[in-house]
Amino acid sequence: MRKSSEEPKSIEADIESSNSEEQEQDQEQEQTEGSDAPQADEPLQDAAAKAEAAQSDDWWSASQQAGDWADPASSDPADDVTPSKEPRTADVYFCGHTTFFPLNRALQVISKEKLTGLLRSFWEQEPIDLLARDGEIIFVSTRDTELYCPETPAPLADLDVVGVARARDQQRETGTPFVLTLTREESIGRELALELIQQYGQKLFSQLWAAPRVWIMFEKNAELLANAADVPGEPNVRDWALETLRLVENIDETAHFEPTSIPAYTKDGFERVQKLKLTPDEAQFASQFNGSRSVQQIAKNLRLDLKSARQMLFRFVALEIVECWPASTAAKPEQQGIFQRFGRKARRDR
């Protein structure tokens, strides 16, 4: 499968160097402990219980069948992005809005529980389907071929137009990526097809991160994999998710971070970030999280404009590695005692 073109870099050295400049260790510990967030790897039952406690009246509906992903798509979801399909007997493993059950949490549950089936994401456009097998991501697709790939890829420019159109029609009917159909017809090579499937799938999924509200549902169904037996899976779900986040273009409407806000690691965020294949820029950015530096200060230290800093911060927040706190909650320098002040004054007078 296609990998990132940028070389991964460990952030341990950067973080150790950065931490040597900071205030008292107990101040950092106090701030970090205050920024605990729900863990992505917690048992599914705990995640569902927390979400249910905070749910609104329309957050959860009875388990609804997404339908075989090879069946024609139904009409668009309602305004609240809740699926309009009639309830059936589907084995729905989890469901909910991303305001309560984040996309990253859903992906990590799929990976940890080794789930096989379909993650359906309902939003203002045609649903986006992620097919998983034993916790690995097979591909992401949609029946809207214009949303999936609006123009014919350059490597396919010389193919028979009728054949490409027929493959696109099949995707509209079944959800199977048209590139996969072309390679099965031996119109293109397998390696090229797998690369394009990865590329278009990640680009498609990236649009969900910035969507204001998405309703997700995972259906456990091994039969859905019958038409994807020849497609290898991506086992590294964490890095796959990060790759999709790098493709997010516009976050202004859904993730506006104030320049004075302060990023701080979540309870297990520091451990989680070290498992990712970060680019050098991402590693430097992650080394700046200490519970006292603001977004503006981090951008200044790394000579980044605020827009670039916000986009990079968005990735770490979406992966539940950090949370952003108002400047008023930042750890403040410890007040000096009276003897410390007098001692410093005496040294100056010498």
Describe the structure.
The protein is α+β, with helices and mostly antiparallel strands and 350 residues long. The protein folds into two domains: 12-36 and 249-329, no CATH class; 44-234, no CATH class. Helices cover 39% and strands 11% of the residues. The radius of gyration is 24 Å and the shape is globular. Mean pLDDT is 77; it is low at 1-8, 22-45, 47-87 and 331-350.
Structural class: alpha+beta
Strand element count: 7
Q: What is the radius of gyration?
A: 24 Å
Helix-strand pattern: HHHEHEEEHHHHEHEHHHHEH
Low-confidence stretches: 1-8, 22-45, 47-87, 331-350
Number of domains: 2
In order across it, which strands form the biggest sheet? 1-5-2-3-4
Round the mean pLDDT to the nearest integer and report it.
Answer: 77
> Strand count, sense and closure of the main sheet?
5 strands, antiparallel
Shape estimate: globular
Helix content: 25-40%
Q: Can you count the helices?
A: 14
Strand content: 5-15%
State the end-to-end CA separation: 69 Å
Topology:
Elements: H1 12-19, H2 25-33, H3 44-53, E1 92-97, H4 103-112, E2 117-122, E3 128-133, E4 136-141, H5 145-148, H6 161-174, H7 178-184, H8 190-209, E5 215-220, H9 237-245, E6 262-265, H10 269-273, H11 280-286, H12 295-301, H13 306-318, E7 322-325, H14 338-349
Helix pairs in contact: 6-7, 7-8, 8-9, 12-13
